[in-house]
Amino acid sequence: MLNRVGKALRIITDDDKKKIAIIIDGPTILPDFDLRKLNVITESLMEIGVTRVGKIITDKQLSQDESELINSFGFHEEIVGSDVDLHVAINALECMNSNSIDIIGIGTTDSGLFPIFSRIKQNKQLLIISWQKNVTPAMEAIADFVLDLDYLE
To answer: Does domain 18-151 fall into CATH 3.40.50.1010?
Structure first.
């Protein structure tokens, strides 16, 4: 019985935290990112909220090991034919229209997504996940939170 109460208490306290959706632009982030650090991203964000959605959008098939690793951290991969930016934008806009998401995190090095960032800011808080050198002053100014991948351990 105590085990059930503990789970119930955890659910109640999670309701008070902000709910985060993370959408990662695979072709720009994955070449330099170690997938084993996906859990470090979610752990780093625990101070501001709870990750409810985690997607990695890519235009190439990932290896079986990479797919299993992504899934083990609660993320899902979405393989698209082309134009990953478009799919990142569509997913972000879908999350923006969800009442169950408070913060939308976009993992990218592409400042071309800036119009989507400004659209997200109209209704939700924005988290940008990127390498420090790729966060432009404009991106930093519009974001509520910036997670620098350089400092994840």
So the answer is: yes
